[in-house]
Structure formats: structure tokens, C-alpha cells
Design goal:
alpha+beta, 6 strands, six-stranded mixed β-sheet, Photosynthetic Reaction Center, Chain H, domain 2, 129 residues
């Protein structure tokens, strides 16, 4: 999805599944903690039903509506974490697995002591790592 879209402009827009069936209306947008890029949309799937989280990355915004490349049944069966709260990394991982999306492992760093300051034999205590 375009990353230059203001997430506030997504709220209230209609969302459709891969078959063109209406899923519901975007209730909230969740941003990536590190980048601030919109990552998930919570879609209200009905008047009295819960919100379903959908990934924004493989989705497309076309003529003001969000088109999600998944079947409505899969979307409605997504794990329910409630809206209005932060998604933990574990919850995001569950959602990625639910949608069958690959999740890149976190970057690995070479074996070295990040607390070591040049010219010191002992690593710094209590500093950022």
C-alpha cells in the first residue's frame, strides 16, 4: 500500500475482500512502532460485530476504498485483540501467521559487546544496548 497516505484519511473508508465483497468500514489504523508507517487496519465488520485486523501492506487503496487480498471469511476469523490498544509483537506475529504472510526475522548483529566504550576494558553498566 502507499506509505504516503495519512492514516487519518483511511478511517471511515469502506473495505472490500479479494472477491469485491464488502467487509466493513475502517475503524482504526495502527502504525509500526519503529517507522510510523500504517501497518494494520481494524475493520468494523458489522453493526454489532467486532473489528477484524487486516494487514495494510498487501492491500490497496483504490478510488477511496481499501481492497484487501484475502477472503472475507479469513478476515472475520482473524484473532481478536480488541481495538484502541497497542498490538504487541506477539499479537502481530499471530496476525501475520493467520494471513499466511512471511515475517522477516529481526536483524542479527555480529557478536560484540555494544556496551563497550573505546579505551575501556569493562562494558558500561545500565546504558542503552
Amino acid at each position: 500500500m502507499q506509505t504516503d497516505i495519512d492514516p487519518r484519511n483511511l478511517i471511515g473508508r469502506k473495505a472490500f475482500d479479494r472477491n469485491g465483497t464488502k467487509i466493513g468500514t475502517i475503524d482504526e489504523v495502527y502504525l509500526d512502532d519503529a517507522t510510523g508507517v500504517p501497518e494494520w487496519a481494524a475493520i468494523r465488520t458489522g453493526l454489532f460485530s467486532r473489528d477484524a485486523f487486516v494487514p495494510l501492506e498487501p492491500s490497496e487503496l483504490i478510488e477511496g476504498t481499501l481492497h484487501v487480498p484475502f477472503d472475507r471469511t479469513l478476515i472475520k476469523d482473524a484473532p481478536d485483540f480488541g481495538v484502541g490498544r497497542h498490538l504487541s509483537p506477539e499479537q502481530e506475529l499471530q496476525l501475520y501467521h493467520h494471513y499466511g504472510l512471511d515475517v522477516a526475522p529481526p536483524p542479527s548483529f555480529p557478536d560484540r559487546d555494544f556496551g563497550q566504550v573505546a579505551g575501556q576494558d569493562e562494558p558500561q553498566k545500565g546504558g542503552p544496548r
